[in-house]
Amino acid sequence: MLSLKARLDLHHEAKRQVTELKTTWNLAAMQAAIERYRYPLSAAFYQDLVSSQSVVFVFVQTTRPHDVEVIPMRRPQLQAGQEQWQTALARFDRCWLANEWPETEPTAEEEDPLMVPFSPVPVSRRFEIPVGELAL
């Protein structure tokens, strides 16, 4: 049996609240990011793990004017997230027992609302490293 663990950004035991800090280049894309990265799943897992009453995500924009948006997870989101993490854990258990690990579909980086847009400005490299695996 594998134990479950998490690294919480902030757990305020007296308030029974978990707060997670996230950075983004675009606050306007936060709702899409919440769904894409399954933050309700994480929030529900954190909530169950530490028996918190609430989970709040704090998004900080990495570009000027460095705005901040606080998004509390609502009860329907947490309920859906709980179903998601329990389903994911059950799938993991099946894969573990069968030793079969199907690959997931790759996602396009340009659709990622948390990633900084590609800049065509060339970056100087200190080392020329061929693309591929590195045997150590």
Put the structure in a nutshell:
This protein is α+β, with helices and mostly antiparallel strands. It has 3 helices and 4 strands.
Amino-to-carboxy terminus distance: 30 Å
Low-confidence stretches: none
Shape: globular
- The tally of beta strands, per DSSP, is 4
User: What is the CA-based Rg, rounded?
Assistant: 19 Å
Oligomer: single chain
What can be said about the biggest beta sheet?
4 strands, mixed
Largest sheet, order of strands side by side?
1-2-3-4
Query: What is the level-2 CATH architecture name of the domain at 10-97?
Result: Alpha-Beta Complex
- CATH topology-level fold name of the domain at 10-97: Lambda Exonuclease, Chain A
The helix count comes to 3
Strand content: 15-25%
N-to-C SSE string, H for helix and E for strand: EEHHEEH
Structural class by sheet pairing and helices: alpha+beta
CATH class of the domain at 10-97: Alpha Beta
Helix content: 25-40%
Question: Average pLDDT, to the nearest integer?
Answer: 82
Q: How would you sum up this structure, described in words?
A:
With about 140 residues, the chain is α+β, with helices and mostly antiparallel strands. The chain has a domain at about 10-95: Lambda Exonuclease, Chain A (Alpha-Beta Complex). Helices cover about 30% and strands about 20% of the residues. It has three helices and four strands. It has helices spanning about 30-35, 40-50, 75-100; strands at about 10, 15-25, 55-60, 70. It has a four-stranded mixed β-sheet. A hairpin with a 6-residue loop joins strand 3 and strand 4. Helix 2 crosses helix 3. It is globular.
